[in-house]
Design goal:
The chain is mostly helical. The protein is built from 2 helices and 3 strands; from the N terminus they run E-E-H-H-E. Helix 1 runs antiparallel to helix 2 (119-162). The two termini are 47 Å apart.
């Protein structure tokens, strides 16, 4: 098929003026090298992505949502950490009960050696009590450290759940 000829408008109005090519404003030429810069964006906890909103090399404005985390995965992590924390609390409570029973047993043993005036037995039992108490202090410090760690993990995951998006910090 042939392309039809365009009819020229009969009115010589500005809106029907032919298209012209030209520069609008001032043109400044600057020599230089353009170097792309990478900006690292990340969450400081483990998470799975549900959606990536931009493509590689795409120009984004500051504040643009780059990626969204998977809320179901975050909830599973929160459940897992809570379960581990509860297990830690239960294990510590059981260890405290065992400590109390062993300490009571050693005190009775020490009392018996004192009644028998057995210096060697008294010395060994005092050493066993000291070791047991030192181990209990260590277990208590370890327990407190683990609870703080679990609380910090839960806090980060809850913050991530509240706003599960990564935003562009700079345009580029």
């Amino acid at each position: 098929m042939e392309i039809p000829d365009l009819a020229e408008p009969v009115v010589s109005n500005e809106s029907y003026r032919p298209v012209e090519f030209g520069n609008v404003g001032r043109v400044e030429l600057v020599n230089g090298q353009v170097v792309p810069m990478e900006h690292c964006h990340f969450w400081d906890t483990d998470t799975a992505l549900s959606n990536i909103h931009v493509n590689i090399g795409e120009y984004v404005e500051e504040g643009t949502v780059l990626a969204t985390a998977d809320a179901d995965y975050i909830k599973k992590v929160i459940e897992s950490v809570t379960f581990e924390k509860n297990n830690c609390v239960t294990a510590y409570a059981i260890n405290c009960d065992i400590y109390d029973v062993k300490l009571e047993e050693l005190k009775h043993k020490l009392k018996g050696f004192k009644e028998l005036s057995d210096k060697k037995g008294i010395k060994e039992t005092n050493r066993e009590i000291d070791v047991l108490e030192e181990n209990h202090r260590y277990d208590e410090l370890l327990y407190n450290h683990q609870i703080k760690s679990y609380d910090a993990q839960l806090k980060k995951q809850r913050e991530l759940l509240d706003d599960a998006s990564i935003y562009a910090r700079k345009s580029g």
